[in-house]
Amino acid sequence: MTTLDQALRQQLSHPLDTTPWSTIGGRALPRYDGKVRDCYIDKENGERIIVVTDRLSAFDAVVGTIPSKGQVLNQLAMFWFDKTKHIAPNHMLRVPDPNVMIARECVPLPVELVMRSYLTGVTSTSIWKAYEAGARTFCGHPLPEGMKKNQKLPDVILTPSTKAAKGDHDVSVSRDELLAMGRIDPQIFDRAAEIAAALFAEGQRHAAARGLILADTKYEMGISPDGAITVIDEIHTPDSSRYWYAEDYESRLAAGEEPRSLDKEYVRRWLAGEAKWSGDGPPPVMPDEVRLEAARRYIASFELVTGATFIPDTRDPLPRIAQALEAT
Known about the structure:
CATH architecture of the largest domain: 2-Layer Sandwich
Number of helices: 9
Shape: globular
Structural class: alpha+beta
Order of helices and strands: HEEEEEEEHEEEEHEEEEHHEEEHHHH
CATH superfamily of the largest domain: ATP-grasp fold, B domain
Oligomer: single chain
Radius of gyration: 19 Å
């Protein structure tokens, strides 16, 4: 057993599942818990303290925890925010702990910007499920006949998604449908769409140079206090993005096999396949071996994308994070 595997198995018994604090630095801060992130709002300083937990979300539900997942997501987001800051401003200010990002507080746009380059997916909102059911238009984009799962689309497309309340399901919509809902100003949406396209192009270019395919991703954006459209939440992580190995993509496509993936699609496939669960009712309990394999894939994505070796911090996460936050 490798040293990394030993560290991951050690973390199985004490994942960062949630944070318990009502005060940070002696101050009571408003708190918001997302599916993966616990956020503390520091209104006085215009900042958001984001603690990235080990929770895993699939089919719009929290389905369990993955060892070191929060550390991987936070450090990959840090890498990509730094790498793409010339394309668009982002909310990152500093990273005082492997699981923590201090960010500029922004007003979120009420839409996720989903960029797609391949006909794939297993969720109810995926482009492949729509195509398989007979749809030849997706979010206003025409799709040709005769395509097969995981095939590259003729063009990169933007497929916006409404941001559902916690526990509900997101809905994919066209630009016209979104604007008809009156949720967002057309000029703000179009500028956000331009940013998403530029970020995706940069992500695909870098991924290709690292032997990977960035098949699709989603971006969240907000308006900063100075009025700028700003990238928030995360960017190009295995939670928000679908990464495939490039070297055998074509041969596996020709054989009708799924691409080798480096994202949470592995867990989605386990849930929808072996566990026969796709979002309705309580999720099944993930076996430790599924959790460990998912952790290995998250870590492999970090190392392949960044070129750096991932070294997990195996200290008990809550006292470690509390100490880091007290020092900020």
